[in-house]
């Protein structure tokens, strides 16, 4: 059995440095790995990225993260990625990685993702260049995600994104903004690969639990949703 | 118009405080802020940003800090 700890939307900065890490004491006793579903920072600065790296380095379990929209705000996402990777944290953006947990190979593929909405009420790749760029960004990500998920050679497969693959975990947010919170294209990639779990953040007012049309369990682990340092999901037989 | 003012304050919160999830309501001469943020400092920054765009109205800050409890329990997915 694999124990997956997951959290998103830490939004750390110098003013709260060290506060989150205090809650991670004993993490290896509760989980085999930690997934972070983006928005590690508030303003997307390298300074905040360094704080995030300090919070998440050397925790005694592998830490895998994606970036979120806040982490892109200052156009320093590449530097933030470098700072995190230098601290031993794996940062995914359209690719996958595997970790060994007690004889089981766990594969994680993911990335930030993007919006567009959900079947029947979504944006289309049509019209102005701005609209095509918006939808195109999500389509390109979903294609890379699908390839990365299918390319994982592992026993247990997990998808990690910032944006949501389903509507259910957005319940609590105003329906009018769902197209800015996720896309069904992410779920389509998840279902095509036979994932065991999909984890995301971004929707602070959303709900924790959902499921893709193909039956894959989805969990929104945004800190304001789970209201604990991390949630733990157990996968596989004991 | 209070609806326009509320929208402008929300724009200011996004641009200055980088907070997207704060609900802004304008009733008579009072601006109400609702939502949750990660720290007390952010709570103060939001109020300051809102006051700059509030056109002299009183700002009632009802934003709270997200409680982060010790992790408890686990969910088994089979």
Q: Can you tell me about this structure?
A:
The complex is a heterodimer of chains A (238) and B (78). Chain A has 238 residues and is of the alpha/beta class. Chain A has a single domain, classed as Purple Acid Phosphatase, chain A, domain 2, CATH 3.60.21. Chain A is built from seven helices and 13 strands. In chain A, the strands form three sheets. A six-stranded mixed β-sheet of chain A has the order 5-6-9-10-12-11. Chain A has a five-stranded mixed β-sheet with strand order 4-3-2-1-13. In chain A, α5 packs parallel to α6. The longest helix of chain A is centred in the middle third of the chain and has 22 residues. Chain A is globular. Chain A starts with a strand and ends with a strand. By secondary structure, chain B is of the alpha+beta class. Chain B has a domain of 43 residues. In chain B, 38% of the residues lie in helices and 31% in strands. Chain B contains two helices and four strands, in the order αββαββ. Chain B has a three-stranded mixed β-sheet with strand order 1-2-3. In chain B, α1 packs across α2. The longest helix of chain B has 16 residues. The N and C termini of chain B lie far apart (54 Å). The model of chain B has no long low-confidence stretch (mean pLDDT 91). At the A-B interface, β13 of A face β4 of B. β13 of chain A pairs parallel with β4 of chain B, so a sheet runs across the interface. Chain A: This is Icc-related predicted phosphoesterase. Chain A: One of its GO terms (molecular function) is metal ion binding. Chain A: It comes from Actinomadura namibiensis. Chain A: Keywords: Hydrolase, Metal-binding. Chain A: One of its GO terms (cellular component) is membrane.
